[in-house]
Each structure stands twice: as structure tokens, then as C-alpha cells.
């Protein structure tokens, strides 16, 4: 089993651009809490209510993710959204606009937890920007039930990579392959996220979107549990260079991947 880690220390500020939080907005918050509570062992506590009812998901007392209730008339796709760290959300939001992105929500204060905005890149993929004060981000990684990786699924990586480089200062490292369009985003020499160009395999009904991977102890057992709890298996478990991976959706249709790290 991988060792539990407190990212950069639990009270250390994340370097700008580091994925530091994931959040999910749904229509049935209580049912969604039940699903993820059973699946990942999360417990829930009230969180900032600026955008409506919101809870923090905790694992062994550590913050790992957030979930909120959408207004009844909200029709956008239900999706996990990664938040990227910023030292100045307002300045980052301005840069997003200058580089061809859109800021849909904020910047606004999330009570004493921090300051946030929700934006989309030029390809339409939605992401959050987080300037933490009381809540700096996910407080534990490297154990089952915690976010392990975030990956942008998009048509092609070249133009969108330039956007994220310009806004957050990433260094990029493409995978050298004739038939695989993949770029890894690096900060301080460390891989922090990926961009996957899918071409015409990108689902037309979704368009470009970010996907969160959660670590699990046993991918195959997790898939059985997802199905038993009312979710769906979208792609069965298969072995990859980074571990055994599968993609699923929760009962409201939010897609995510699970990864069982090789021991």
C-alpha cells in the first residue's frame, strides 16, 4: 500500500497551478454523500455555503474533496471539477480571460476557507481556481479514497497546452508517440496533471473536460461496488504503466476514474 502523504505539509501553501482540490456539484446531495461514503469511506462536514448547500468530504479526519447541491433548474453536466492553486485568484482570473478562457463564477470568497473562481479553458473544459486561507486543499494523498491525478480530455493538446502554460507557468513534456497525443504538465520538475488529445474519439456530447482519478485498493472490487451502489462501469479495469485503471460514473452521471497503484 502506498504511504499516506500530507501534500507539502498540511499547512503549506500550494505552488500556483498545483491541483489542490476537487469538487462535485449534484442535484441529490444526500444520495451522493451516501454513494461516495460507501465507496471511499468518506465522512461529511458542512463547508462554505456561498453557492448553496456544500459539504467537505473527510477521510480519517482529513479533507479530501467537496460536494455541493445545484439549484433545481441547473442543466450543466454533472462533473468532478479540479481546482488549481493560485496566490491571487483575481489576477489569475484576469489572465484566464486574456488567454482566451472564460470566468463563469467569481472570483468570490468562500467564507474563511479561501477565495475561488470557476473558469473554462478555450476548449470549454471547466476548472476551478483556489486561493486557500483556512482550507489550502486536499489534506491527504496516496491512500485509497484520495484524488490521485487529474487529466484533461480534449481534441488536441497543442493549443490548450499553451493556454495552461500561459496562465499557470507549467513546463510541458509531450509523450513521444506517433499515435498518442499526450502532454504532462510539470511544476518544479514534478508531474502534476495530464492533457490527453483524443481527436474524434472525444465524446461529442461532453466536449473537452477534466477527469479526476481516485486511488483505490482493488480496482476490480471497486467496480463491483460502484455497480451495487447504483453507478455504472464505463470502461472495465485494465493494467496500465501506472497501475490498474477503470472509468465509472456515479448515480447522477459524474464520471471519474479509479486507479489501483502497483504494489
TrEMBL record:
Residue intervals of the VOC domain: 18-132, 146-261
Pfam families assigned: Glyoxalase (PF00903), Glyoxalase_6 (PF18029)
CDD domains: SgaA_N_like
Protein name, per record: VOC family protein
Organism: Streptomyces pluripotens
Amino acid at each position: 500500500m502506498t504511504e499516506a502523504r500530507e501534500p507539502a505539509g498540511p499547512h503549506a501553501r500550494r505552488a500556483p497551478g498545483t491541483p489542490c482540490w476537487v469538487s462535485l456539484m449534484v442535484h441529490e446531495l444526500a444520495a451522493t454523500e451516501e454513494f461516495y461514503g460507501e465507496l471511499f469511506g468518506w465522512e461529511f462536514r458542512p463547508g462554505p455555503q456561498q453557492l448553496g448547500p456544500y459539504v467537505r468530504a473527510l477521510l480519517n479526519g482529513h479533507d479530501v474533496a467537496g460536494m455541493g447541491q445545484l439549484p433545481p433548474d441547473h442543466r450543466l453536466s454533472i462533473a468532478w471539477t479540479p481546482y488549481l492553486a493560485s496566490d491571487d485568484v483575481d489576477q489569475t482570473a484576469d489572465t484566464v480571460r486574456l488567454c482566451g478562457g472564460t470566468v463563469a463564477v467569481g472570483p468570490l470568497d468562500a467564507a474563511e476557507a479561501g477565495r475561488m473562481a470557476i473558469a473554462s479553458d478555450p476548449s470549454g473544459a471547466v476548472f476551478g481556481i483556489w486561493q486557500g486561507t483556512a482550507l489550502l486543499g486536499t489534506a491527504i494523498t496516496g491512500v485509497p479514497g484520495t484524488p490521485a491525478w487529474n487529466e484533461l480530455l480534449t481534441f488536441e493538446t497543442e493549443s490548450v497546452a499553451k493556454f495552461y502554460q500561459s496562465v499557470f507557468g507549467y513546463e510541458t513534456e509531450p509523450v513521444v508517440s506517433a499515435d498518442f497525443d499526450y502532454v504532462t504538465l510539470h511544476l518544479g520538475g514534478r508531474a502534476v496533471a495530464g492533457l490527453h488529445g483524443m481527436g474524434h474519439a472525444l465524446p461529442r456530447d461532453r466536449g473537452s473536460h477534466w477527469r479526476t482519478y481516485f486511488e483505490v485498493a482493488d480496482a476490480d472490487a471497486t467496480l463491483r461496488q460502484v455497480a451495487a451502489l447504483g453507478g455504472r462501469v464505463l470502461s472495465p479495469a485494465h493494467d496500465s504503466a501506472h497501475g490498474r485503471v477503470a472509468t465509472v460514473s456515479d448515480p447522477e452521471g459524474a464520471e471519474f476514474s479509479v486507479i489501483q497503484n502497483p504494489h
